[in-house]
From TrEMBL:
It is found in: Cell membrane. One of its GO terms (molecular function) is ABC-type transporter activity. Residues 133-363 form the ABC transmembrane type-2 domain. This is ABC transporter permease. GO terms for cellular component: plasma membrane. Its main location: membrane.
Length: 365
């Protein structure tokens, strides 16, 4: 029986790798996302354009504009000549933020008086605009304190744990290990049974000496193997190419990948058992992946979601695996720290595999 199972696994791997197109579909997304995500998927604001309407023209206002232009966020500053131009540059998306400096700015700063400046931000890009506004506000407040010869009453010393320089790649790349693993494992598994139905070999599979459990195992293991290889490639690139620190152990990372892959193949086989052809399986996989990524905590903290969505997130395997991978990379997780997230993955795997097995039996009769 084991020899027949290995034969089925070998058949699945041959079906995946027999054509150059299939091999490209397995390799190209990994390389593409590895090159694009660390640079494109970032919430940092850099190389943005700031528009300034300087009504003062004094030495203080000119120095303030120079300080704003010296920041990494605003290497380009547009000097405006009217209040109407502020609205126009925002409408045309020529600037992310527009600031109006009042006429008496230099005089009030010299006299130690408070100054009110106007800022217009592009609400269509609210997140980036708010971050840019925070950068500009910090520069303006520091400049005003220096000019008025006032020191802040207290100084808050900030220490960034696990990511001292707040490198965004340290956040993106561990999460990318989880996302790439999801794509590879889910797609390979979901298309497996659907491909057999589409090619007319599903009935031959049913009359083979293999039991339904062995058939499902033969369909599940190739997907887990593909996900494991893809995840290891991303993890290795994160450490050796992008210099993300790896504080945990390789063994725990592989074990957690296998547990996560087991939970994914349950969803994949369930989708495959419900699909009559590969197109339906592909659409089903996409329908699962989109909410899985949104509810995982990668795009927004789970704590900010309403209670019903937090409950749904608890059964999303990606939300647990992202916590494990980040913990292994940045916190040096051991098995004890990872176990609170590992056992939900095993519970999800047991539930989805059992449901997929029942659906497989129902569709096979």
């Amino acid at each position: 029986m084991w020899q027949r199972l290995f034969t089925l696994i070998r058949k699945e791997m041959q079906a995946l790798l027999r054509s150059p197109q299939s091999r490209r579909l397995l390799i190209a997304p990994v390389l593409l996302q590895l090159l694009l995500f660390p640079f494109a998927a970032t919430l940092e604001v850099k190389n943005s354009t700031l528009a300034v309407f300087n009504q003062d023209g004094g030495a203080a206002s000119i120095e303030l504009v120079q300080r704003l232009a010296a920041t990494q966020a605003f290497p380009q500053v547009l000097m405006l000549h009217s209040q109407q131009e502020m609205q126009q540059v925002i409408d045309r998306q020529q600037a992310l933020l527009a600031i109006s400096l009042p006429q008496d700015l230099s005089r009030k700063l010299a006299a130690g008086q408070s100054v009110a400046a106007q800022a217009i931000i592009d609400g269509r890009r609210s997140n980036s605009a708010q971050i840019a506004y925070g950068y500009a506000l910090q520069v303006i407040q520091q400049f005003a304190a220096e000019r008025s010869h006032q020191l802040p009453p207290a100084k808050l010393v900030v220490q960034n744990l696990y990511n001292p320089n707040l490198e965004y790649r340290w956040f993106v790349l561990p999460s990318l290990v989880a996302i790439i693993t999801t794509i590879g494992c889910l797609m390979v598994t979901a298309l497996s049974l659907a491909r057999e139905r589409e090619e007319g070999t599903f009935e031959q599979l049913l009359v083979s000496p293999l039991t339904p459990g062995y058939i499902m195992a033969g369909k599940a293991l190739p997907g887990m193997l593909v996900a494991l290889v893809q995840g290891c490639i991303i993890a290795a690139a994160a450490v050796w190419v992008y210099h993300v620190p790896f504080s945990g152990t390789v063994g725990l990372l592989i074990v957690s990948m296998l547990c996560y892959g087991l939970s994914l193949v349950g969803f994949g086989l369930l989708i495959s058992a419900l699909s009559s052809n590969q197109q339906q399986a592909f659409l089903g996989s996409f329908a699962f992946m989109s909410p899985a990524v949104i509810l995982s905590g990668y795009m927004a903290p789970v704590e900010n979601m309403p209670l019903p969505l937090r409950l749904v997130s608890a059964v999303d395997p990606l939300s647990h695996f992202i916590i494990i991978v980040k913990g292994i990379f940045l916190k040096g997780y051991g098995f004890a720290e990872a176990w609170p997230q590992l056992w939900p993955l095993l519970a999800i795997a047991a539930s989805t595999l059992a449901l997929a097995y029942l659906m497989f039996l129902r569709r096979s009769h």
